[in-house]
Design brief:
Residues 4-241 form the ABC transporter domain. This protein is α+β, with helices and mostly antiparallel strands. It has helices at 43-51, 99-109, 114-127, 143-156, 173-190, 201-207, 225-230, 235-240, 256-267; strands at residues 4-11, 20-27, 32-36, 58-63, 66-70, 75-76, 84-87, 161-165, 193-198, 210-215, 218-223, 247-250, 277-280, 286-288, 299-310, 315-321, 324-330, 341-346, 351-354, 360-361. A six-stranded mixed β-sheet has the order 7-8-9-3-10-11, with helices on both faces. It has a five-stranded antiparallel β-sheet with strand order 2-1-4-5-6, covered by helices on one side. The protein has a five-stranded antiparallel β-sheet with strand order 14-18-15-16-17. Helix 2 crosses helix 3 and helix 2 (99-109) packs parallel to helix 4.
Length: 365
Protein backbone atom coordinates (compact mmCIF):
# COMPACT_ATOMS: atom_id res chain seq x y z
CA UNK A 1 0.00 0.00 0.00
CA UNK A 2 1.24 3.52 -0.74
CA UNK A 3 2.53 6.24 1.56
CA UNK A 4 0.84 9.60 1.04
CA UNK A 5 2.86 12.78 1.42
CA UNK A 6 1.22 16.20 1.61
CA UNK A 7 3.94 18.84 1.27
CA UNK A 8 2.99 22.45 1.98
CA UNK A 9 -0.57 22.00 0.75
CA UNK A 10 -2.57 25.19 0.28
CA UNK A 11 -6.19 25.41 -0.89
CA UNK A 12 -7.84 28.73 -1.62
CA UNK A 13 -11.27 29.20 -3.14
CA UNK A 14 -10.67 32.84 -4.03
CA UNK A 15 -11.19 34.52 -0.66
CA UNK A 16 -8.82 36.20 1.76
CA UNK A 17 -8.45 33.09 3.93
CA UNK A 18 -7.11 29.72 2.81
CA UNK A 19 -9.35 26.71 3.35
CA UNK A 20 -6.19 24.67 4.03
CA UNK A 21 -3.03 26.42 5.18
CA UNK A 22 0.41 24.96 4.36
CA UNK A 23 -0.43 21.44 5.42
CA UNK A 24 2.49 19.03 5.87
CA UNK A 25 1.34 15.49 6.60
CA UNK A 26 2.66 12.00 5.92
CA UNK A 27 0.22 9.08 5.95
CA UNK A 28 2.26 5.91 6.21
CA UNK A 29 1.69 2.59 4.47
CA UNK A 30 -1.07 0.75 6.36
CA UNK A 31 -2.08 3.75 8.51
CA UNK A 32 -5.66 4.29 9.62
CA UNK A 33 -5.39 8.08 9.69
CA UNK A 34 -8.31 10.11 11.03
CA UNK A 35 -8.62 13.76 10.04
CA UNK A 36 -10.43 15.19 13.05
CA UNK A 37 -11.81 18.65 13.65
CA UNK A 38 -14.93 20.84 13.76
CA UNK A 39 -17.02 21.64 10.71
CA UNK A 40 -15.22 23.94 8.29
CA UNK A 41 -11.72 23.06 9.52
CA UNK A 42 -10.52 21.80 6.10
CA UNK A 43 -10.59 18.04 6.66
CA UNK A 44 -13.03 17.21 3.83
CA UNK A 45 -11.22 19.59 1.50
CA UNK A 46 -7.99 17.76 2.33
CA UNK A 47 -9.38 14.33 1.52
CA UNK A 48 -10.93 15.64 -1.71
CA UNK A 49 -7.52 16.98 -2.75
CA UNK A 50 -5.96 13.58 -2.08
CA UNK A 51 -8.67 12.01 -4.22
CA UNK A 52 -8.15 14.51 -7.04
CA UNK A 53 -11.67 15.94 -6.75
CA UNK A 54 -10.14 19.31 -5.83
CA UNK A 55 -7.04 20.88 -7.33
CA UNK A 56 -4.53 22.19 -4.81
CA UNK A 57 -3.53 25.84 -4.95
CA UNK A 58 0.08 25.26 -3.92
CA UNK A 59 2.34 22.50 -2.64
CA UNK A 60 2.38 18.89 -3.80
CA UNK A 61 0.70 15.55 -3.14
CA UNK A 62 2.61 12.31 -3.62
CA UNK A 63 1.01 8.85 -3.49
CA UNK A 64 3.63 6.13 -3.39
CA UNK A 65 6.34 7.21 -5.82
CA UNK A 66 4.02 9.33 -7.99
CA UNK A 67 3.45 13.06 -7.66
CA UNK A 68 -0.27 13.31 -8.37
CA UNK A 69 -0.74 17.08 -7.93
CA UNK A 70 1.84 19.86 -8.10
CA UNK A 71 0.61 23.13 -9.63
CA UNK A 72 4.07 24.71 -9.97
CA UNK A 73 5.24 21.80 -12.12
CA UNK A 74 1.89 21.60 -13.95
CA UNK A 75 1.38 18.00 -12.78
CA UNK A 76 -2.03 16.50 -12.15
CA UNK A 77 -3.11 12.86 -12.16
CA UNK A 78 -6.92 12.55 -12.55
CA UNK A 79 -8.94 10.74 -9.86
CA UNK A 80 -9.61 7.61 -11.92
CA UNK A 81 -5.87 6.97 -12.26
CA UNK A 82 -5.00 7.27 -8.56
CA UNK A 83 -6.31 3.79 -7.58
CA UNK A 84 -8.36 5.20 -4.73
CA UNK A 85 -11.58 3.93 -3.14
CA UNK A 86 -14.06 6.54 -1.94
CA UNK A 87 -17.01 6.35 0.46
CA UNK A 88 -18.98 9.51 1.17
CA UNK A 89 -21.45 10.50 3.88
CA UNK A 90 -24.35 10.04 1.43
CA UNK A 91 -23.12 6.56 0.29
CA UNK A 92 -23.84 7.56 -3.37
CA UNK A 93 -25.43 4.24 -4.31
CA UNK A 94 -27.16 3.93 -7.68
CA UNK A 95 -30.88 3.74 -6.76
CA UNK A 96 -31.84 1.85 -9.96
CA UNK A 97 -29.24 -0.89 -9.44
CA UNK A 98 -29.47 -3.88 -7.12
CA UNK A 99 -26.94 -4.46 -4.35
CA UNK A 100 -25.05 -6.89 -6.58
CA UNK A 101 -25.00 -4.43 -9.48
CA UNK A 102 -23.83 -1.59 -7.24
CA UNK A 103 -20.94 -3.69 -5.93
CA UNK A 104 -20.16 -4.80 -9.50
CA UNK A 105 -20.20 -1.27 -10.91
CA UNK A 106 -16.53 -0.41 -10.45
CA UNK A 107 -15.42 -3.84 -11.65
CA UNK A 108 -17.42 -3.42 -14.84
CA UNK A 109 -15.76 -0.04 -15.48
CA UNK A 110 -12.39 -1.76 -15.18
CA UNK A 111 -13.51 -4.29 -17.82
CA UNK A 112 -12.89 -7.28 -15.56
CA UNK A 113 -14.15 -10.59 -17.04
CA UNK A 114 -17.71 -11.41 -16.04
CA UNK A 115 -16.83 -14.61 -14.13
CA UNK A 116 -14.18 -12.83 -12.05
CA UNK A 117 -16.59 -10.00 -11.34
CA UNK A 118 -19.25 -12.41 -10.10
CA UNK A 119 -16.74 -14.12 -7.83
CA UNK A 120 -15.50 -10.81 -6.43
CA UNK A 121 -19.05 -9.56 -5.80
CA UNK A 122 -19.85 -12.81 -3.98
CA UNK A 123 -16.72 -12.51 -1.83
CA UNK A 124 -17.36 -8.88 -0.84
CA UNK A 125 -21.06 -9.29 -0.09
CA UNK A 126 -20.34 -12.32 2.09
CA UNK A 127 -17.51 -10.60 3.96
CA UNK A 128 -19.70 -7.61 4.75
CA UNK A 129 -22.81 -9.59 5.62
CA UNK A 130 -25.01 -8.34 2.78
CA UNK A 131 -25.16 -11.54 0.67
CA UNK A 132 -28.86 -12.10 1.56
CA UNK A 133 -29.71 -8.70 0.05
CA UNK A 134 -27.93 -8.87 -3.31
CA UNK A 135 -31.21 -8.67 -5.26
CA UNK A 136 -32.60 -5.72 -3.31
CA UNK A 137 -32.39 -2.05 -4.25
CA UNK A 138 -30.85 0.62 -1.97
CA UNK A 139 -34.27 1.98 -0.97
CA UNK A 140 -35.12 -1.44 0.46
CA UNK A 141 -32.11 -1.43 2.82
CA UNK A 142 -31.44 0.08 6.23
CA UNK A 143 -28.81 2.76 6.68
CA UNK A 144 -26.31 0.25 8.03
CA UNK A 145 -26.92 -2.10 5.11
CA UNK A 146 -26.46 0.74 2.62
CA UNK A 147 -23.19 1.62 4.34
CA UNK A 148 -21.98 -1.95 3.92
CA UNK A 149 -22.92 -1.88 0.22
CA UNK A 150 -20.90 1.30 -0.27
CA UNK A 151 -17.92 -0.30 1.49
CA UNK A 152 -18.28 -3.52 -0.54
CA UNK A 153 -18.36 -1.54 -3.79
CA UNK A 154 -15.17 0.25 -2.79
CA UNK A 155 -13.37 -2.87 -1.56
CA UNK A 156 -14.33 -4.92 -4.61
CA UNK A 157 -11.88 -2.99 -6.82
CA UNK A 158 -9.09 -3.61 -4.25
CA UNK A 159 -7.92 0.02 -4.03
CA UNK A 160 -4.47 0.89 -2.69
CA UNK A 161 -5.96 3.73 -0.70
CA UNK A 162 -9.36 4.11 1.01
CA UNK A 163 -10.80 7.58 1.60
CA UNK A 164 -13.85 7.72 3.89
CA UNK A 165 -15.59 11.08 4.34
CA UNK A 166 -17.80 10.93 7.47
CA UNK A 167 -19.38 7.65 6.32
CA UNK A 168 -21.06 6.93 9.67
CA UNK A 169 -22.68 10.28 10.41
CA UNK A 170 -26.11 9.26 9.04
CA UNK A 171 -26.38 6.18 11.28
CA UNK A 172 -27.96 5.86 14.72
CA UNK A 173 -25.71 5.29 17.73
CA UNK A 174 -26.01 1.48 17.73
CA UNK A 175 -25.27 1.16 14.02
CA UNK A 176 -22.35 3.56 14.36
CA UNK A 177 -20.86 1.30 17.03
CA UNK A 178 -21.31 -1.77 14.82
CA UNK A 179 -19.82 -0.06 11.79
CA UNK A 180 -16.80 1.18 13.76
CA UNK A 181 -16.05 -2.42 14.63
CA UNK A 182 -16.63 -3.39 10.98
CA UNK A 183 -14.24 -0.72 9.69
CA UNK A 184 -11.61 -1.79 12.21
CA UNK A 185 -11.95 -5.39 11.02
CA UNK A 186 -11.75 -4.34 7.36
CA UNK A 187 -8.57 -2.36 7.99
CA UNK A 188 -6.97 -5.28 9.82
CA UNK A 189 -8.02 -7.79 7.16
CA UNK A 190 -7.22 -5.84 3.99
CA UNK A 191 -4.13 -4.00 5.36
CA UNK A 192 -5.20 -0.95 3.37
CA UNK A 193 -4.10 2.62 3.94
CA UNK A 194 -7.19 4.48 5.20
CA UNK A 195 -7.88 8.20 5.51
CA UNK A 196 -11.06 8.77 7.54
CA UNK A 197 -12.71 12.17 7.94
CA UNK A 198 -14.75 12.77 11.09
CA UNK A 199 -15.76 15.42 13.59
CA UNK A 200 -16.56 12.69 16.13
CA UNK A 201 -13.70 12.31 18.59
CA UNK A 202 -14.83 8.83 19.66
CA UNK A 203 -14.66 7.57 16.08
CA UNK A 204 -11.13 8.93 15.85
CA UNK A 205 -10.09 7.49 19.22
CA UNK A 206 -11.49 4.02 18.56
CA UNK A 207 -10.55 3.59 14.89
CA UNK A 208 -7.32 5.44 14.19
CA UNK A 209 -3.74 4.35 14.40
CA UNK A 210 -2.94 8.06 14.11
CA UNK A 211 -5.05 11.22 14.37
CA UNK A 212 -4.48 14.57 12.67
CA UNK A 213 -6.38 17.35 14.46
CA UNK A 214 -7.25 20.38 12.30
CA UNK A 215 -8.75 23.79 13.03
CA UNK A 216 -9.44 26.63 10.59
CA UNK A 217 -7.41 24.93 7.88
CA UNK A 218 -4.33 24.52 10.08
CA UNK A 219 -2.93 21.20 11.32
CA UNK A 220 -2.78 21.36 15.12
CA UNK A 221 -1.28 18.01 16.11
CA UNK A 222 -0.57 14.53 14.73
CA UNK A 223 -0.08 11.43 16.86
CA UNK A 224 -1.63 8.27 18.23
CA UNK A 225 -5.06 8.73 19.81
CA UNK A 226 -3.71 8.39 23.36
CA UNK A 227 -0.73 10.68 22.68
CA UNK A 228 -3.09 13.43 21.59
CA UNK A 229 -5.48 12.81 24.47
CA UNK A 230 -2.80 12.61 27.17
CA UNK A 231 -0.43 15.28 25.82
CA UNK A 232 -2.39 17.85 23.78
CA UNK A 233 -0.05 20.29 22.07
CA UNK A 234 -2.28 23.30 22.61
CA UNK A 235 -5.47 24.37 24.31
CA UNK A 236 -7.63 23.84 21.21
CA UNK A 237 -6.68 20.15 21.02
CA UNK A 238 -7.10 19.75 24.77
CA UNK A 239 -10.58 21.27 24.68
CA UNK A 240 -11.75 19.51 21.51
CA UNK A 241 -11.09 15.99 22.84
CA UNK A 242 -12.92 14.74 25.87
CA UNK A 243 -16.51 14.40 27.14
CA UNK A 244 -17.17 16.14 29.45
CA UNK A 245 -14.61 18.64 28.14
CA UNK A 246 -11.48 19.61 30.01
CA UNK A 247 -11.85 22.03 32.94
CA UNK A 248 -9.77 25.21 32.55
CA UNK A 249 -8.68 27.69 35.20
CA UNK A 250 -7.79 31.04 33.65
CA UNK A 251 -4.57 32.47 35.07
CA UNK A 252 -5.18 35.97 33.73
CA UNK A 253 -8.14 36.53 36.05
CA UNK A 254 -7.93 37.33 39.77
CA UNK A 255 -10.24 34.63 41.09
CA UNK A 256 -10.14 32.20 44.04
CA UNK A 257 -9.61 29.27 41.69
CA UNK A 258 -6.58 31.03 40.20
CA UNK A 259 -4.98 31.02 43.66
CA UNK A 260 -5.26 27.23 43.87
CA UNK A 261 -3.76 26.79 40.40
CA UNK A 262 -0.94 29.24 41.22
CA UNK A 263 0.00 27.17 44.27
CA UNK A 264 0.26 24.10 42.08
CA UNK A 265 2.40 25.90 39.49
CA UNK A 266 4.75 27.36 42.10
CA UNK A 267 5.24 23.89 43.63
CA UNK A 268 6.56 22.79 40.22
CA UNK A 269 8.71 25.82 39.51
CA UNK A 270 6.41 27.44 36.96
CA UNK A 271 5.71 31.17 37.50
CA UNK A 272 1.99 31.83 37.53
CA UNK A 273 2.64 34.81 35.22
CA UNK A 274 3.98 32.43 32.54
CA UNK A 275 0.76 30.43 32.36
CA UNK A 276 -2.36 31.38 30.48
CA UNK A 277 -4.47 28.51 31.83
CA UNK A 278 -4.33 25.23 33.74
CA UNK A 279 -6.53 22.38 32.56
CA UNK A 280 -7.54 19.04 34.01
CA UNK A 281 -9.83 16.39 32.57
CA UNK A 282 -12.90 15.42 34.65
CA UNK A 283 -11.82 11.76 34.88
CA UNK A 284 -8.44 12.84 36.30
CA UNK A 285 -10.07 14.48 39.32
CA UNK A 286 -10.66 12.55 42.53
CA UNK A 287 -13.44 13.84 44.76
CA UNK A 288 -12.07 13.65 48.32
CA UNK A 289 -12.70 14.98 51.79
CA UNK A 290 -10.67 18.10 52.71
CA UNK A 291 -7.20 17.19 53.98
CA UNK A 292 -4.83 19.94 55.20
CA UNK A 293 -1.87 17.54 55.02
CA UNK A 294 -2.31 16.81 51.31
CA UNK A 295 1.01 17.00 49.35
CA UNK A 296 1.58 20.35 47.63
CA UNK A 297 2.55 18.69 44.35
CA UNK A 298 -1.05 17.79 43.55
CA UNK A 299 -3.51 20.18 41.97
CA UNK A 300 -6.07 20.71 44.75
CA UNK A 301 -9.30 22.61 44.11
CA UNK A 302 -11.48 23.11 47.22
CA UNK A 303 -15.14 23.34 46.32
CA UNK A 304 -18.75 22.56 47.10
CA UNK A 305 -20.78 19.90 45.31
CA UNK A 306 -23.65 21.39 43.33
CA UNK A 307 -25.03 18.21 41.79
CA UNK A 308 -24.29 14.52 41.23
CA UNK A 309 -25.57 13.31 37.85
CA UNK A 310 -25.80 9.68 36.70
CA UNK A 311 -24.50 9.00 33.17
CA UNK A 312 -25.04 5.24 33.05
CA UNK A 313 -21.78 3.56 33.96
CA UNK A 314 -20.42 6.56 35.90
CA UNK A 315 -21.38 9.72 37.77
CA UNK A 316 -20.62 13.32 36.84
CA UNK A 317 -20.00 15.56 39.84
CA UNK A 318 -20.53 19.29 39.37
CA UNK A 319 -18.73 21.40 41.96
CA UNK A 320 -18.39 25.13 42.55
CA UNK A 321 -14.72 26.14 42.88
CA UNK A 322 -14.60 29.83 43.62
CA UNK A 323 -16.99 31.26 41.07
CA UNK A 324 -16.43 28.49 38.52
CA UNK A 325 -18.15 25.21 37.75
CA UNK A 326 -15.72 22.27 37.67
CA UNK A 327 -16.71 18.76 36.60
CA UNK A 328 -15.36 15.43 37.78
CA UNK A 329 -16.36 11.91 36.75
CA UNK A 330 -16.34 8.94 39.07
CA UNK A 331 -17.38 5.29 38.85
CA UNK A 332 -18.74 5.33 42.40
CA UNK A 333 -21.14 7.89 43.78
CA UNK A 334 -20.58 6.78 47.37
CA UNK A 335 -21.98 9.26 49.87
CA UNK A 336 -21.48 12.36 47.73
CA UNK A 337 -24.34 14.81 48.15
CA UNK A 338 -25.06 18.36 46.94
CA UNK A 339 -23.76 20.85 49.48
CA UNK A 340 -20.80 18.72 50.58
CA UNK A 341 -17.49 20.56 50.97
CA UNK A 342 -14.86 18.55 49.09
CA UNK A 343 -11.49 18.76 47.38
CA UNK A 344 -11.07 17.95 43.70
CA UNK A 345 -7.58 16.49 43.42
CA UNK A 346 -5.46 15.68 40.37
CA UNK A 347 -1.86 14.39 40.37
CA UNK A 348 0.68 16.61 38.67
CA UNK A 349 0.98 14.27 35.68
CA UNK A 350 -2.73 14.80 34.94
CA UNK A 351 -2.63 18.61 34.95
CA UNK A 352 -2.14 20.42 31.63
CA UNK A 353 -0.54 23.86 31.60
CA UNK A 354 -0.81 26.23 28.65
CA UNK A 355 1.04 29.50 28.17
CA UNK A 356 -0.48 32.85 27.21
CA UNK A 357 -0.40 31.76 23.55
CA UNK A 358 -2.35 28.58 24.45
CA UNK A 359 0.67 26.33 23.76
CA UNK A 360 1.55 23.44 26.06
CA UNK A 361 4.01 23.99 28.92
CA UNK A 362 5.71 20.89 30.29
CA UNK A 363 5.46 20.45 34.05
CA UNK A 364 7.78 18.14 35.93
CA UNK A 365 5.77 15.79 38.13
Amino acid sequence: MPTITLDGIVKNYGGDQNAVEHLDLTIDDGDFMCLLGPSGCGKTTTVRMIAGLENITDGSITIGDTVVDEPRANRFVPPEKRDIGLVFQSYALWPHLTVADNVDYGLKLRKMPKAERAERVSQMTQKLGIAPYVDRYPAQLSGGQQQRVALARMLAVNPKLMLLDEPLSNLDSRLRLEMRAELKRIHDEFKATVVFVTHDQWEAMTLATRVAVMNQGVLQQVGSPMDIYDRPRNRFVANFLGVPPMNFIEMGEETPQRVYAARFLEAHGVPASAAGSVGVRPEALTVAQPDPSRPSGDLVLPGRIESVMPTGGSWTVEAAVGGQRVYATTLQRGSLQPGDEVELVAPAAQAHVFDTDDERVEVTA
